[in-house]
C-alpha cells in the first residue's frame, strides 16, 4: 500500500488550494457570463427552447 513518506508542508497545501480555487473561479465566471448572454438575448451561438419553439 502506498504511504507518503513525509507530511505535506502548509505552503504546498496553500498553493494547491489556491490553484484549485482559481480554476473553479474561472469556470464559474465563464458560466455566469454565458448565462447572462443567453438571458439578455445577445447570444448567437446557443439554441434553447421558449414555449416549445426552438429559438436561436
List keywords for this structure.
single chain, 56 residues, mainly alpha, two-stranded antiparallel sheet, 2 strands, elongated, ribosomal protein
Description:
It is a single chain. By secondary structure, the chain is mostly helical. The protein has a domain at 13-39. Helix content is 55%, strand content 11%. The protein contains 1 helix and 2 strands. The protein has one helix at 10-40, and strands at residues 48-50, 53-55. The protein has a two-stranded antiparallel ribbon with strand order 1-2. Strand 1 and strand 2 form a beta hairpin. The longest helix has 31 residues, at 10-40. The radius of gyration is 21 Å and the shape is elongated. The mean pLDDT is 84.
Helix % is 55-70%
Shape designation: elongated
Contiguous runs where pLDDT drops below 50 for at least 5 residues = none
> How big a fraction of the residues is strand?
5-15%
Q: How many individual β-strands? A: 2
Across the major sheet, the strand order is 1-2
Largest sheet: 2 strands, antiparallel
Mean pLDDT: 84
What's the alpha carbon Rg, rounded to whole Å?
21 Å
**What distance separates the N and C termini?**
54 Å
Tally of DSSP helical segments = 1
Structural class of the secondary elements?
mainly alpha
| Helix and strand pattern | HEE
